[in-house]
Amino acid sequence: MRCFKVVVAILVLAAFASAPTRAQNGLGPLGGEDEPYRKQQWRLPSSDADHPARGLLFRPPGDGPFRLALIAHATTQNVLRRVQMPQPEYQALAAFLVARGFAVLVPERLGHGATGGRYAEDQGGCDEADYASSGRATAEQVSLALEFLRGQSFVREDGAVVLGHSAGGWGALALAKQDPKALSAIVVFAAGRGGHANDFPNRICAPHTLTAAAAEFGKAARIPVTWLVAANDTYFAPAFSRQLADAFRSGGDKVDFRALPAVGGEGHWMIETEAGVKAVSAELDRALKTSPPVAARKP
To answer: Are 246 and 283 in contact (CB under 8 A)?
Structure first.
């Protein structure tokens, strides 16, 4: 009987030991590739084991290994809008990056759309917003997806880039402390939190707190940051965005700020459009140290 109990105990321990492996086996591609750009659904790790993140992967032709570009999406404090949020694609930006040889991952973070789960990036109320904590929470979600893809055979271990939009850009700034050998560049589009306070354009919740958090992120920065904003952005206007970038720069001069001409009706969403990607293409090529694809010669 004693021998039987020992065997049972060993089997129970083995079952617990293999549980993470079984959970890990649930991560990876979901189904085959599709158009455009080998579009493929992926299940990615998150900080909540019960809610793996959903994501879209785009790739150039071939087996790689490719440099990895991760696009961190915007968010909202509105619960209903988050739940109903369609899976982010940034198709025009993904096309730009694939044409320059990148594998492009667009992960959906916890608390959004099909991924679901607890919203980990809550900044709190308007007057007492905690922007540093919300930025670090975004960075954690991005980092988990980034490291998982860097472990795939078709992705290079070096030269990865993160491109963040709005709150996704804010989280990307919190990633600037990472190892430059693994993460070579960060590009943010209208980075920030708390814009359109109470749904009013050109109003920001606790702007001084946001500026202080930018300075905090900048102190630890090791990765070069390119900060882009359109002239007609009513969430984080160029003048205020420059203040944020200056606060970030005060920690170590790791940011290059560029104000761009107006794009579309609301510049905050420029990077979601073909016109916006075209407007920032020269800045992106410079920041990512890439070149425009060479047009095929006509026969």
So the answer is: no
